[in-house]
Amino acid sequence: MKRLTAYVIDGHELTIRPAPLEREWMNRTNQRFAYRCLPLNIANAHGWEILNGAGFSAVWDGGERENAVRIEPDPGTHAPAVSHFGSGTLTFHIPCLFKTDSGTDLFVTGPLNRPKDGIAALTGIIETDWSPYTFTMNWQFTRAGHRIRFEAGEPICHIFPVSRGGLEAVTPEMRKLSENPALEGEYKAWSDSRNSFNEGLSDPNSDAVRKKWQKSYFRGVCPSGRNGPEDHRSRLRLKPFG
Description:
By secondary structure, the protein is an alpha+beta fold. About 15% of the residues lie in helices and about 25% in strands. The protein has five helices and 14 strands.
């Protein structure tokens, strides 16, 4: 059993949840069309989200000094973010030490597939199997003079474990598709099927219109009808922090 333990510093509170599949912008797409993209769905739920403790607004005047970011907490609260590094960066101090199994790092980034106008989350990877240090979650303004808003309970950080050295063990290769006839055959079958399906969408009485979308990848099935691997995932169900 692999473990990810959050040691919250005494006197502080931290709310962490399994990242949900749903996104408000995806709900607003026509017929919730965005949810037909399985890679998007899996990424949405690929880890845990740390939630913002209190609402606040902030604006950057374009300068490089710390006081170039002005933060306005909601009445009766203290803003959980500060201007610490300058350079138009908004910093959340995470009052927690995360511990992972030996050889496992923690990938720390912004909420996945949650675009935020005027500010962008930065990403870090931390060796949490040994480190006794807390980390900060940083967001960088992308526009001066644009007021941004973080609501109480809004995700501010997304985390998931990664194997240290896993990428360095990968040997990248580049080859022509024709060198793999089986894969090329599956690709051509899918490409022909997709073109035919897209053409059918122009006919209101076609099977394509009735089906609305092709579900082979979602179901884990190749164009030839061959099943994909047994561990194909169409949804992630992560355990909450206990």
